[in-house]
């Protein structure tokens, strides 16, 4: 049994019915504040996503208020790119939201599997996110937690923004974070949320710009040894142009990213709607195949250049903290006052060009006699500063050796030759690097690392493959969930009639059961339409033999009943049940077949004269055939008859009389 199955079985919420309405199913995702489950709305018979606050948080009145506020804020938004919120409830202290269930994947999956993306593709993914944020900003709502994990991509390609759990209604003066705490995901955090905790629409614009940078390059713009260093970088370092990582990116795309991620919020687009217009202009330039558009680039860049001209100093913050920060980088940061001022020096984020390392400008010499002394002083100061820079900069660092495509043990040995240690990071899948070999290091090969530091090793698990589960007999919803649990998706669905499978059940599927497939592979389903309806032909008046043959050929069984009928000839169908509409294969059709008119008693004509006997039999409905006895005497008297007197015979049949 897998760990996930153990988790589901041990989760006390799975199987529970909340508010008498929502039956909790499999767990979908878990966040810092709540867990999301797939659930059945038993009242409306539909699948929903149920977001349930973690146990214990519901006891905190402030958390409870914020959780309820999420429902009210999100309920204001009715937009095709926003995950709809249906309901909010409290089941004996268990707070929950019922939301639209969006089967598919997240933008994080796209970044992990496909980034870096072409600029056009990146902007196409960002546009619906901005459309959702535009609706939120129009309603006075700031999301505050825009990141790839909160962008869902449905199986049909629809992009939806989820989790307005940190969203707050914006007043004209802005909204300050509660009790001096800042909540958010640090890699996408706007600088103002670090420095003073104030968020507005421009904060979401900044996060969207960071997300665009990551789509274009496959990495985040700021990294560090700890979340606090990443937060510091957002405040003190500009986001670099994506073309530094991907040289083919046009200048106007660089300018768009840097405009959206300007540290000064007044430089950024005022809200998501303004950024959307800029994205459309950039997208049009890409469609035209322009390697550069000086006018567009200038329009996006001029405010940034003006800001940099107004700031005559450079805070000199270095972004060189490693190749990529840990993925689990949610942070709670105090922002009252100066956020880093009271930290001990050894705990402060590193800088490479701080005031302590800047060479002071020497005062002009007062006379020629002081010139030599001034020069010596300057040289001494330069030597001291240079020595300090060498010691605290170059001397303390070395380069990360090439450890890729080695086993973890071999990589550890190789790192040890450079005086470095290693640590195993979470393994990952790779299409190119065999299982058991190092596919990525942190820092990357050739990047700077402290001497005696540790290199993070990401070991390949080999190609990401999943076996197709057994789907035959499942309904489509259950089959969809079974495929999603192994990163596969439902492909083409074909309806076929089946006598063996109830309506809506999977009959066949392709690829076959237990075959290994790449994530995202579409599995085609053949789904039962139930038993095939067959039109019933009306065969009344037909000979029973022909009627029976036709019904059996159509797939029916035939039940026959015979009865006399004075109006219907013998062997002809008198009636049929049913005689129209549709039935299913092997269903029964009843036929009533004529036995002709009822039988009558043959009169006794023995010893009668032939003429009298013929009249009597004819009046009784029979035909008469006359035969002469071997010893015929010419008396014309009836000596015998067949059928005999008193026998039952079919009216219209022949009675033979023998005369002497």
From TrEMBL:
Known EC number: 2.7.11.1
Domain of life: Bacteria
InterPro entries listed in its UniProt record: Kinase-like_dom_sf, PASTA_dom, Prot_kinase_dom, Ser/Thr_kinase_AS
Record's keyword terms, sorted: ATP-binding, Kinase, Membrane, Nucleotide-binding, Serine/threonine-protein kinase, Transferase, Transmembrane, Transmembrane helix
BP-aspect Gene Ontology terms: negative regulation of fatty acid biosynthetic process
Stretches that traverse the bilayer: 371-392
CDD domains reported in the protein's UniProt record: PASTA_pknB, STKc_PknB_like
Domain PASTA: 462-529, 530-595, 596-660
An annotated Gene Ontology molecular function: ATP binding
Region (Disordered): 304-368
Recorded catalytic activity of this chain's protein: L-seryl-[protein] + ATP = O-phospho-L-seryl-[protein] + ADP + H(+); L-threonyl-[protein] + ATP = O-phospho-L-threonyl-[protein] + ADP + H(+)
SMART domains registered for this protein in UniProt: PASTA, S_TKc
Pfam families: PASTA (PF03793), Pkinase (PF00069)
Identification of the protein by name: non-specific serine/threonine protein kinase
Organism expressing this protein natively: Kribbella voronezhensis
Lineage: Bacteria, Bacillati, Actinomycetota, Actinomycetes, Propionibacteriales
